[in-house]
């Protein structure tokens, strides 16, 4: 592998991980409020840094486990990790899938309704159609789109930070001096990190480019950093609106409105809408890869039309869920409960059984950071 190809292979998982988690992780801002800002402005920063560390460690172990056992879709990954109990993760994943899709479906509708003043259903329909189109073309296009849009995203969040400090610098400085909340920032960080890690087994298709332990470890910890940076940039601006923003459903739209820059507002919201498409596409692509594997086991090829059909089916179901429960409830209750499920079915088994299996397969070299 050439040096350029190696660099791309190591960076790609981080860009895709960041692309997948952002819509369910911090694109609306509600998640930042729930798990970080509510703990106190300074404490929230500590929580974000701890989150990056947790992500990096779990991603590094996950990537190495996938490489060792050639498990690049979530079914084979959990068959190797949990044995006959692998199906429990699949149940949990489908619930998580509906939860995250419900959040981004609701957020996409709110975003379109508040930015251009048309009914929210048009934003949701546009999201569904875009995801259906991308899933039709499979892994290679999805990899390129997710990685490319991530670069756009970093530029957008850097601009957001610069504009935020220019407009609200004094308020941000004052916000960071306010006292902490009553709940633990460590607990909030673990909860946030855990529910977002549910998607790790769904991005393993991009780990097939990695050939050595040093590459998987580097890619894992780099992914944790790459994924948290835009969140930290956004969080810093949001502190300028503390504590009033704690009760806002979609903090992002409130901050953009306060900036009073219509063109920037529109462009930034286009970028955010793109992240909703990215997240939904990656999550549903994992389901399609699972279905394709079933077809392969039966010596058949998955019909191409079935890929967008599966994606649209899940998105429609998610829309009904979002209409029933609303964005704040989905994030505060749904994400909170899923934290414990993911800890039990993925993170704890990976860091115990998974590490033991890596070591048993010759993984002692992993501890030496190379092979």
What does this structure look like?
It is a single chain. Mean pLDDT is 82; it is low at 363-371. The chain has one domain (3-356): Amino acid/polyamine transporter I (Up-down Bundle). α6 (120-137) packs across α11 (262-297), α7 (139-175) crosses α11 (262-297) and α11 (262-297) packs across α12 (306-325). With 371 residues, it is mainly α. It has 13 helices and no strands.
Uncertain runs are: 363-371
H/E topology pattern: HHHHHHHHHHHHH
Radius of gyration: 20 Å
Count every helix, treating DSSP H or I runs of 4 or more residues as helices: 13
Q: If classified by CATH, what would the architecture be?
A: Up-down Bundle
Largest sheet: none
Report the count of strand segments: 0
Q: Tell me the span between the first and last alpha carbons.
A: 16 Å
Q: Give the percentage of residues in beta strands.
A: under 5%
CATH topology: Amino acid/polyamine transporter I
Mean pLDDT: 82
Name of the CATH first level:
Mainly Alpha
- SSE class: mainly alpha
Instruction: Categorize the overall geometry.
Output: globular
The named CATH superfamily: Amino acid/polyamine transporter I
> How many structurally independent domains?
1
- Proportion of residues in helical segments: over 70%
Main attributes?
371 residues; mainly alpha; Amino acid/polyamine transporter I; 78% helix; 0% strand
């Amino acid at each position: 592998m050439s040096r350029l190809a190696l660099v791309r292979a190591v960076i790609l998982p981080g860009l895709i991980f960041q692309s997948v988690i952002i819509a369910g992780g911090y694109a609306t801002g509600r998640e930042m409020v729930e798990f970080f800002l509510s703990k106190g402005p300074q404490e929230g920063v500590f929580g974000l840094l701890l989150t990056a560390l947790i992500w990096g460690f779990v991603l590094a172990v996950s990537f190495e486990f996938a490489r060792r056992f050639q498990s690049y879709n979530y079914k084979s990954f959990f068959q190797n990790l949990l044995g006959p109990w692998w199906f429990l993760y699949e149940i949990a994943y489908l619930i998580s899938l509906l939860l995250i899709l419900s959040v981004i479906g609701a957020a996409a509708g709110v975003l379109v309704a508040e930015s251009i003043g048309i009914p929210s259903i048009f934003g949701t329909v546009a999201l569904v159609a875009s995801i259906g189109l991308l899933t039709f073309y499979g892994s290679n296009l999805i990899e390129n789109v997710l990685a490319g849009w991530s670069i756009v995203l970093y530029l957008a969040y850097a601009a957001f930070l610069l504009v935020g400090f220019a407009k609200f610098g004094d308020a941000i400085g004052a916000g960071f001096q306010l006292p902490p909340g009553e709940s633990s920032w460590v607990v909030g960080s673990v909860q946030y990190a855990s529910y977002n890690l549910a998607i790790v087994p769904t991005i393993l298709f991009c780990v097939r480019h990695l050939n050595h332990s040093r590459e998987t470890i580097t890619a894992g910890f780099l992914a944790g950093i790459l994924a948290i940076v835009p969140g930290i940039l956004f969080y810093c601006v949001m502190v300028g609106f503390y504590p009033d923003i704690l009760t806002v459903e979609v903090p992002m739209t409130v901050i953009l409105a306060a900036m009073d820059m219509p063109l920037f507002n529109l462009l930034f919201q286009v970028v955010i809408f793109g992240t909703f498409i990215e997240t939904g596409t990656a999550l549903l692509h994992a389901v399609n890869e699972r279905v394709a594997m079933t077809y392969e086991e039966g010596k058949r090829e998955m019909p191409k039309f079935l890929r967008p059909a599966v994606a649209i089916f899940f998105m429609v179901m998610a829309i009904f869920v979002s209409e029933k429960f609303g964005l704040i409830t989905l994030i505060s209750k749904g994400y909170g409960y899923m934290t414990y499920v993911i800890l039990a079915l993925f993170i704890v088994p990976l860091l115990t059984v998974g590490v033991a299996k890596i070591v048993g397969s010759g993984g002692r070299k992993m501890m030496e950071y190379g092979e």
